[in-house]
Amino acid sequence: MPAHARAADPAADYLLHCAACHGVDRLGGMGPALLPENLSRLRKAEALKIVREGRAATQMPPFAEVIEGEALTKLLDWVYTPVVPAPRWSADDIRASRIQHADPAQLGERPVFSADPLNLFLVVEAGDHHVSVLDGDRLEPIHRFPSRHALHGGPKFAQGGRYVFFGSRDGWVTKYDLWNLQVVAEVRAGINTRNVAVSPDGSHVAVANYLPHTLVLLDGDLNLLKVLDATDRDGKQSSRVSAVYEATPRQSFIAALKDVPEVWEISYTRAVEDIPVGFIHDYKQREGAFIPGYLNPRRTQLADVLDDFFFTQDYSELMGASREGAGQVVNLDVRKKVADLPLAGMPHLGSGITWDWQGRRVMASTNLKTAEVTVIDLKTWEVLRRIPIRGPGFFLRSHENSRYAFVDSMMSPENKHILQAIDKETLEVVREIAGEPGRTLAHVEFTRDGRYALASLWEDDGAIVVYDAATLEEVKRLPMKKPVGKYNVWNKVMREEGTSH
């Protein structure tokens, strides 16, 4: 849109250019909330640069040629002005928002379809806010249902894949019965949400929020258990929650704070020791102050914040990185950093995968700023190989039954239509799969047995493109409305090494 077509004042400019992604009320949507509370660590000069030039690894486009200089400055000043009254989302608001869509007692105990329930795919279609259910054996849709706006963070499965929990950027958590193809319950846990995590038995749900600065804990029926304010140990500095993940062997949730250099571990089992706080004279004699270990944070204090992280196979350690690329290894048992990671750019560790290579366990990750896949030895934390690829990529996927790892280059305007297959033994790119230039081809997920690899043609008139995982030849296409992600039940429930958890 030419500059002369812009609106005359900041509020109108916001509605014209920003509201579709960040919400009419600035409380967030597909993009984050634009409020002073959310922008406290972002200086105006840096924010102005982002608005002018766009932001790497996001859908934020440049506006330098759309809004004139003075109007852009006024718009930014307006965004940094507090909303009055200030937005709130309290425990009472969470409880009041809960919706019971179905009576669990009336839902059947067997799937209502004939497909293998462990080889289903859920395809999130952002184009019209729906989710499609695919039969992973026949590679055909069997159901489609509407979702909340802008699902984010990937669905999480529980009770062997029967239930799946979705989180939306505007804070809604949805519990869906995949066997009965029906929404069971919903609750709004925040205003601007990053992701959700769920215990395997479905009894506990954790919700990471950017706004308000909270980690919300729910039971399996989406009733509120507890709201944890995301602050430092002294309660002086508030923080957004970067992400929360479930660590099954530890029976806990692991969360990182975006504005405070801390990692939290929150146990969802009552069979856990109490947490010491303050000065402890004698642990055995319990001379000092303790709080219950159940649903309270056990803190690991760090030198740098973590924006993204990846667990080792036994969940004793996590590999994390800040948005600036500072990588570190944190041991969750001793609760401290134990190694640095020699990473550059903006590693996307949350999309990492692992496999065995020449007698050692390795982890590989994409990078949102650098055109490489980084392969790391999980014993020494050394970089074994930097595999050059077409452009900065977002997703890396494989399967234990496949010799290939698929990587996209979706951060590259010129090469976002190209998938590359990396041979996991030679650590080299051996094949390119090119779609139509200018259109994004990304996010591969495998069938349960690893025979087929499904990729997303990430467009409003897009498709799921199915490839033979051995020959790398296209098998079929299923039309979809901007399929931003697909998730196989077996791979997620069994923590398949080739997919993110």
UniProtKB/TrEMBL annotation:
It comes from the Bacteria. SUPFAM superfamilies: C-terminal (heme d1) domain of cytochrome cd1-nitrite reductase (SSF51004), Cytochrome c (SSF46626). Keywords: Heme, Iron, Metal-binding. The keyword Metal-binding applies. GO terms for molecular function: electron transfer activity; heme binding; metal ion binding. Pfam families: Cytochrom_D1 (PF02239), Cytochrome_CBB3 (PF13442). Residues 5-83 form the Cytochrome c domain. This is Cytochrome C oxidase Cbb3. The lineage of its organism: Bacteria, Pseudomonadati, Pseudomonadota, Betaproteobacteria, Rhodocyclales.
